[in-house]
Each structure stands twice: as structure tokens, then as C-alpha cells.
Write a structure and sequence with these properties.
mainly alpha, globular, 208 residues
Length: 208
Amino acid sequence: PPCWTVMLALEVKAMDYRPQRLDNAKREQKSPDYLAINPRGQVPTLQHGEVTVCETLAVLAYIDATNPEPPLFGKEPLETARIWQAISECDGNLREPVTNISRPLFRGKATEFAEQISEAAIVVREELGLLESRLATDRWIAGETLSAADLTIFPVVMQLLRAAEREEAVPLDLAIHPLSEHFPNLGAWSERIEALKGYQNAYPPHWK
């Protein structure tokens, strides 16, 4: 999701860029060459000329500062605050329980971690419910304009759905997938993002 967030931002900004995928299975992000760029061995990392920026939000801020239009973090104080609030809420309340659901499902350990998944699903449904209510009145997560909040939250929700649609998830009755059935406003929001110009360019290559 963090890499997808950055690539979506680059597409929204209509910036030229060259993506390079690192194979996690081969631990390519821990290779000496990559550690020389990002000592933590994490992704994403942005290289722009002689500038290197690590960490998703730092990359988004750099992209927004170097290419101001369209703005990712708002133009008015309240708009900016709402965007950062939504991002903080995602990072503080949604991302971890989504991982607690998706990781065991992706690894074929649904039965072993069934209790963890069920408990996380309760939290996730509550968080999705809050987003659903917000999108009942607003077109985008932080208002009427696409922002960094949408680009941050969307990949997390897609990670969740990719896990929830797996066959092993069916007996767990997560009440999450399909999204439009359980959370129609979120479903419509996701369709708006998927309709963005350049969306397919940003789509994770290993998910195709």
C-alpha cells in the first residue's frame, strides 16, 4: 500500500517517473545496493536527481512541494487539517487491523489465526463505518477534492479486500467483501479512484 500511494500521487500529478519493483521474496530491499540508498531497507524510496526521500508521507510532501498542482494537502487550513486527520486516523486505527487480517490470509494461515482475524474485523468494520458516514456527505475522504487522504487510505482498503475475497476468508464471515454491498459509499468512492487517469499505471504489478 505505501508504494501504491506514492505511485497514485505521481499519476495524479502527471509526473514522469520510472518505477522499479523490488522482489520481497528475494529480499532485494535488503541488498547492499538498496541499503546504500535507504539504510532501513524499506519501500517506497523516491530518487529525484541527487535527492533521495524515504517514507511515504515524506515522499508525498516532497512531490506536493515540487509540483503544487493539483494540491495533495489542501489549500485552506481546515482542508489541510482534515486531510492530515484522515491520514492519522488511517495510520493509527485502520492499517494495523487490516494487516492482522490480510497477513494470515495471504500466508494461508486463516484457520490458525481465525480468532485474530475475527477480532481485527470488528475494528476494521467500525473504521470503515466511519469512512462510510463521511462519504455520505463528501465526495472524497477529506471533502470535495481528491487528496493525500484518499491516496493513503485507498491502497489499505484494497489490501483488505484482496484478503477478504480469498476462499479461506469465506467461513470467517468478515462482512467486508464485496465492498459495495456492505459499504456502498466506500464502494462508489473506490470506483471514482479507479476511474482516475493513470490508475492502471499505478496498479501494483504483482497483483495483475
